[in-house]
Write a structure and sequence with these properties.
The structure is a homodimer of 322-residue chains.
Chain A lengths: L4 H5 L4 H22 L9 H10 L2 E2 H8 L3 H13 L3 E5 L7 E5 L1 H26 L5 H14 L2 H16 L2 E4 L5 H15 L4 H8 L1 H4 L6 E7 L3 E10 L4 E9 L8 H15 L4 E6 L4 H9 L2 E3 L1 H7 L8 E5 L2
Parallel strand pairs in A: 7-8
Antiparallel strand pairs in A: 1-3, 2-3, 4-5, 5-6, 6-7, 8-10, 9-10
Chain A binds a DNA duplex (30 and 30 nucleotides) through helix 2 and helix 5.
Amino acid sequence: MHNDFLNELAELALGSRLKRISEKMLANAADVYQNFNMNIQPKWFTLLALLDSKKQVTIVEASQFLGLSQPALSQFCKQLVAEGLVNVSIGREDSRQRKLQLSALGKQRVAEMKPIWRAVEKAAVDLCTEANNDFYRALITFEKSFEKQNLLARTTQYLAQSAMHNEIEMLPFSDDLASHFETINAQWIKQMFVLEDIDKQVLQQPRKHIIDKGGKIWFAKHPKLGIVAACALLNKGDGNFELTKMGVLDKARGLKIGEVLLRFVIKEAIALNVNCLFLLTNAKCEAAIHLYEKNGFVHDKLIMQAYGQSYERCNVAMRFVV
Amino acid sequence: MHNDFLNELAELALGSRLKRISEKMLANAADVYQNFNMNIQPKWFTLLALLDSKKQVTIVEASQFLGLSQPALSQFCKQLVAEGLVNVSIGREDSRQRKLQLSALGKQRVAEMKPIWRAVEKAAVDLCTEANNDFYRALITFEKSFEKQNLLARTTQYLAQSAMHNEIEMLPFSDDLASHFETINAQWIKQMFVLEDIDKQVLQQPRKHIIDKGGKIWFAKHPKLGIVAACALLNKGDGNFELTKMGVLDKARGLKIGEVLLRFVIKEAIALNVNCLFLLTNAKCEAAIHLYEKNGFVHDKLIMQAYGQSYERCNVAMRFVV
DNA sequence: TGTGAATAGATAAGCACTTATATAAGTTTT
DNA sequence: AAAACTTATATAAGTGCTTATCTATTCACA
């Protein structure tokens, strides 16, 4: 037996994978009905359950409740009437409507099936929660995410974003850009914390406090928005550098420019043959921490002990690895 | 717009739900290809990706790699040859085999598509991880659970089990059953911990230590295996009772008799108008804790403070609610 | 060395839906 | 009140697979 190529494709083959498992489950459901000698087709199940619950629905209503097309329901209805499980009556107010109801036989069959349905549900819960999983919840959440923005929309957005990222220019520090360093960082520091005196000094005199001490500063320039992000490497001696004062202007949020800049700075740091690249931040900055984690930083207690005391507001220390 | 009846059916309609979302994703994939003007059908995707990765495969190999039927691959192959994307050559060693390879055009098309594939993968990862979800992982785990034991097998097992549960008899304490109390509990206590002196006294003289102090003991009798489980309620005064000495013999493990007994004891405790029903256990007893959680017990620090010191081995305290 | 069993692939038919379209019945607009 | 639109359902045809079955080839072994 060959192994499963869909594993190699991972998330890219998500659709195929879902299709495969749903077909397996359908076949399995057919086996369940056959095993318990119930003379019904799995495809009828949702309609029978719906009729059991709502007593009377029209074809269009049923198709909306079940998320299937109207012709599908039209066909099921025909089949179930042929089996004698469903009665159809013409709508009193609107003679186009066909009102579906379980027949006496249908009610009896559903009653017979209910214990099996309950057992199947238990089995399904079992299946969903085995191995500490919560598949059903994950599926619901996934459906909501898909509803919110589907794969095409996300793909288009991602491509547009990476086209834009290619146009972003990285600029090294120069005195005529110094004011941007202050504007960019003052903005987010004020939003998250309080702009303290040390902050002000560093932001107002970056050459003195950072560059002249062997540190680095870079800016990210958006083709239309101009300079929108900054990031610094602080020289802490012994080849150790602290990544700090990384900020993106409000007007450029959501464009993932921070990530582009961070990756650039990491690449530069590697090129500089940095011994240890670390950063200090606060647990409040969830989004930033997530970004750091995503890009190779890991939480590190030794860094916390060595450098954590330098700033009041820091309670998270991370080190870049690999 | 009506709401979604599949939500009401919850896990029972898992198959239908999976089918629906997989169809949506397939349609969405078709839109992606159309949007980027790629003249390929979504159903071909996995085969093209396979040929890109493995260079050369036969039809049967491809069907195994992709988890589709051989005729499906036979059909795709025909279509892709007609499109000029795939070349077929007859196997040298086995003339029945058709070796599939990407044609020059096929390679070019795949190369054009790759950036889109990458973007789609990013989008899919996004979709899977949005809202703190991990849908892909959950799906893989679910597939494994399904592989291990499918819905039919689980349903059958569950039904057999609940039929057996109906035949289980609950017996109150009587002196002629006292020896079972010791046998059952000594077995599991020895396995998990060390049988201490206090344990021995209580187990050997349950009437003296439990019944005469206003406590209760019940046994579960299996129709074939005999008395296989026991559980006690210890009267701690002020209407507070401790659920303790709950055990199931090795030979009856896996039949969920423990759960049946636990539910019975909870029902009895409620009937006795117990003020507070609690229990003490050890974090080692994962399965038991899971069972307690499933049946209405919650972790409770106050109980730990009030009663936790009584036993050496207890570091988990739980209280029954609702 | 043949002979039956297994395997690779093709073909046909079926299934559970879908989309597209037709028909008939209601509703709204003029 | 007629015309134009909308809605409920039915029907036809298509789709992406499946299972069943057939042919051609290879293998296993007596």
